[in-house]
UniProtKB/TrEMBL annotation:
Chain residue ranges for the region called Disordered: 1-31, 47-97
SUPFAM superfamilies: P-loop containing nucleoside triphosphate hydrolases
Record InterPro entries: AAA+_ATPase, P-loop_NTPase
Protein name according to UniProt: ATPase associated with various cellularactivities AAA_5
Domain named AAA+ ATPase: residues: 125-317
Amino acid sequence: MSDEESARRHNGRIHQDSGSASAALPSGIPRPWWIYQGTGRPLHDVSLEEILPPPPPWRAFGGVSAGPVEGDGRSGALSDADDAPTEPPAPPEDEQDAARRLGATPLGVRSDPEEADLVNAALILRRPLLVTGRPGTGKSTLAYRISRELGLGRVLRWPITTRSTLRSGLYGYDAVGRVHAAAAGQASEGDAHEPGPEDIGDFLQLGPLGTAMLPHRLPRVLLIDEFDKSDIDLPNDLLDIFEAGEYAIPELVRIRRRRPAVSVLTDDPERSTVIASGRVRCRAFPVVVITSNGEREFPPAFLRRCLQLRLPDPDADRLAAIVAAHLGRADDPRARELIQMFLERSEREGGLAADQLLNAVYLVTSQSHVPGPEWEELLQAVWHRLDSAAGST
């Protein structure tokens, strides 16, 4: 299918959807160029591969996967059969995690047009999306909504702490465990030996960032969560990886002549991949969602290469949709009353998180009795100020 045919098919699908869903999606009509619609509904009658334009020339990376490691465990090379690149296995689904984050059903309201504009621009330009906003406005869940709607599988989540480094996002290497395993083998075999290159893959695992940069045919979704907590050098270190689209694993580079291809674990449960010559180069640049509570400034060079989106506080319609998606009780009069109370208290308290509303609605609607005089005191505890919980997203 040509790019022109893909565009016509994509635009036709949009116009069909907008006519039938306009009553359910009062936030506005989708723009013709949007790929991500912001509804949470998976694509239908079309695949992302068919409608996603090719990357700009300066964002095309063209990575290929290594071929399978042969039975002797000491060989392997880039697959060039028929000049077609191979790819790692398709990412696993994790609907349970997505449902926990998003609810079992789509929201039923379209995202703010600015959000959809910037998500689609990030998709087309292959650029990271830096998402800011108050705690609890849904910054982290945006990554899961993108993945569910575009059918991109399990979200790779990298939670940032003050101890996070670029290497911890790329891969982990258990050198001590490898030495201990060699010592155990020496004791059982009665023959002194050093750890050999043949076993190194058992002690090396790619992290979320490293897995996202594998040469997948379709982009993976990478959530870099709470970037405010990062070390001062991490933004610039990360920028280099995003610009190059590749990284090296020194432990594998050193043994590339003896072991040109090594099978290692990835961040996906029970999944592995083959690394050739100790280097990884992406094929489809990942959909990168970086969340920040706006507690620190980032280097200008980093900001220049990101698209920046600030999420507003959810309004009554969106809060009702969130309640319906998670609990299916938005029409309950008690839920509607709580939504209004939540909005008023959120304004007084300087902002509350949507999950605090979900907690209150669940407490009320899951019980058969009407809350008594003690309810206000309990609600005060559930809807506490976020000053001391500003790291929550």
